[in-house]
Specification:
Strand content: under 5%
CATH topology of the largest domain: Arc Repressor Mutant, subunit A
Radius of gyration: 19 Å
Shape: elongated
CATH superfamily of the largest domain: Winged helix-like DNA-binding domain superfamily/Winged helix DNA-binding domain
Number of domains: 2
Distance between the termini: 27 Å
Protein name: UPF0122 protein FD02_GL000931
Function: Might take part in the signal recognition particle (SRP) pathway. This is inferred from the conservation of its genetic proximity to ftsY/ffh. May be a regulatory protein.
Largest sheet: none
Helix content: over 70%
Family: Belongs to the UPF0122 family.
Organism: Lacticaseibacillus nasuensis JCM 17158
Structural class: mainly alpha
CATH class of the largest domain: Mainly Alpha
Pfam family, one: UPF0122
Order of helices and strands: HHHHHH
């Protein structure tokens, strides 16, 4: 569960990090990206551990709210799943078609950006 939450927060941070304040950005980057503890972040910013904890929880809620309204992460995941299914289908159904394979690879590469 913890790994899933970390992965989700890192993904949301990638999509919506630019919408955060510099303090929110720094705290989340240190906490989720660099695996700092609350105490280490508190020392770094000369604030209480509780202040860091509260800020991170509010920021997580903000990221979730952005996602609930904009759906950027969900759309990205759905697009990648569709492209993966297309690639599997083409490779299984048309293994000898080099042109189709090249086109599907280009689509997959573009979707990965």
């Amino acid at each position: 569960m913890e790994i899933e939450k970390n992965n989700r927060m890192n993904s949301l941070f990638e999509f919506y990090g630019a919408l955060l304040t510099s303090k929110q950005h720094s705290y989340l980057e240190l906490y989720y990206g660099d695996d700092y503890s609350l105490g280490e972040i508190a020392t770094e910013f000369d604030v209480s551990r509780q202040a860091v904890y509260d800020n991170i929880r509010r920021t997580e809620a903000s990221l979730e709210e952005y996602e609930s309204k904009l759906h950027l992460l969900a759309n990205y995941q759905a697009q990648n799943a569709a492209v993966d299914a297309l690639v599997r289908y083409v490779r299984q159904t048309y293994p000898g078609d080099e042109q189709l394979s090249t086109l599907v690879t280009r689509v997959a590469d573009q979707a990965a950006r």
